[in-house]
Amino acid sequence: MNREEAKKKAEALVEKMTLEEKAEQLKYGAPALKRLGIPAYNWWNEGLHGVARAGQATVFPQAIGMAATFDTDLVKEMADVVATEGRAKYNAYSGKNDRDIYKGLTFWSPNVNIFRDPRWGRGHETYGEDPYLTSRLGVAFVEGLQGDSETMKAAACAKHFAVHSGPEAVRHEFDAEATPKDMEETYLPAFQALVQEAGVEAVMGAYNRTNGEPCCGSPKLQKILREDWGFDGHFVSDCWAIRDFHEHHMVTKNARESAALAINNGCDLNCGNTYLHILGAVQDGLVSEETITEAAVRLFTTRFLLGLFDGSEYDAIPYTEVESPAHLALAEKAAQESFVLLKNNGILPLEKSKIKTIGVIGPNANSRAALVGNYHGTASRYVTILEGLQDYLGEYVRVLTSTGCELFRDRTENLAFPADRLSEAKIVADNSDVVVLCVGLDETLEGEEGDTGNSYASGDKMDLQLPQVQRDLMEAVKETGKPVVLCLMAGSDIDLSYASEHFDAVLQLWYPGAQGGKAAAKVLFGEVSPSGKLPVTFYESLDELPEFTDYRMAGRTYRYMKGKAQYPFGYGLTYGDVCVTGAEIATCMEAACESGSRSFGKGFDPQALTILADVHNAGIHATDEVLQVYVKNHDCADADKHPELCAFMRIHLDAGEKKQIRIPVGHRALTVVGEDGIRRDNGKSYTFYVGCSQPDARSEELAGKRAVEIAYRR
Q1: Is the pTM value of this prediction over 0.90?
Q2: Which of 84, 218, 270, 304 could bond to 213 as cystine, CB 3.0-4.6 Å?
Q3: Which of 80, 238, 244, 577 is catalytic?
């Protein structure tokens, strides 16, 4: 059924409820209404990179790893798997009358906040620092999760609306102040795209305030969302965020006032318990029954769209879809595409025939936690890097191993001296032909406030350094003189200056999912070429960045940074040798006519452009590659802004192959946002840069290639 039909059914059902019954339905754990035949429903479910927290599920790479793929089709496929497994679980659980938390069809994903500062512990839940990349991947996720049938396969939720990216330790009382320009240019585009392009069913408000107003009770944000963008789904608070109104933000006096502020400003669903005070707020004259009715109708509209009352085509999805062979294969493919090769002096790919013994060393070498990031499900089997190499090499190559050190503790055994595994690591290296050194973090060191095990329990990083014990391990392994491939498993920028100087290759694995070790072995030994690109900047140090609490974008991310990146946004090597040999521009209309097309289809924009890029893989290895298009508007007054990403496309080239690729560039790339936050289309002179990386000097230095420049006037 369409939304109008679902809303009418919701209105008819809600009309039969008492005020008390309607109010009860606004809690995330909505109780059953037996007299109306309404079963209980828990709205809280997670599906960031696989169905989470509900038992067995396919575990994909963490979101930041999916971002590194620059692959919208893959993200859409992954989200469809989340919806399929979510349906399989819902069908089975509800058949047992199990309607507990994490067992519904409303997934509070994706996280489309901007990873503006590398200290933010939750940054690995996002698609990185760029608003365009975030919007494209976010739209793909929502389309994959919700499906294209009139019955939604599952409901997606864009979070956390709208200006939210740390610090975690103060998120409950913090006011994120953003300029009108930064709001329109950076913090809002992904949310707008998810609402207007993908029809996202839900939006979640953030914990913090934005420009003085708590995000879960903000008239300004609701106006943007519902009036300006036309959002007609439901709005949910972050968990216990409404309680923060009176306990931390101090914008209300008590729970009744907080509940009133939230629901009167469009927050339909309370993750938390403050809406237990809704009826008290009604008694105090703070909330009308009409407002409660409106919220209940929105929520039941979603439930009708999901087919939870009338049945749907998805009711037949069997439990055997959970972690099916096809889903596991897709998770492995995703991991392969996510890996970013940052340095390679020629040691990679490794060759089985030339290696007798390989040493696999480091605290993340055999770590399941380092595979999954946070908001994860439970895999039936986890393939760590060590296990992946053991399985891949079989009896042909001897595998020696040592943890070398703990993740951050100074010893592995409580009664031992500090650095009790360091000598073992050296011995393993001494007896190996090559070392794969696996270092990094996991969700105990970077993550959400309260979920992590660091000394501050905030989840944020204090700096860009690995824990001291891991730095000591790196030095010890280097001193053995053996060739070293460093594999970094982390969800954010880590200082790699030592590894870049002293090791033969550096491969960023992120948190690659339960199939990560299997994928890593194939990439390390050349069965698959690495092809991921950095979705975040790796800075030289934090010294060049503004204060963490400063939400102005000046000085942040590749678009506004002032220094030279250690590794730039958009950078990543392959085993091939792909370059753009030429490029030109055609309008969208011209490109369509050249291809013989007269049926332009949904969303056709005659003002859009098409880049025609000639590409050549001069290498001896077949590889995927990510073509990237950046644009510089020469008529805007924003002189400090670098060229920004406006289009990308993942392609495949065999060794020696040449192709011409058509890359569409949306008309929005020609607009510019002023200090007043108004987006204008008044530019005349532009330069487009077409290549396999960002058009900055550091990328050229690292990759040895320059982007092709195209001057464009209109």
Answers
A1: yes
A2: 218
A3: 238
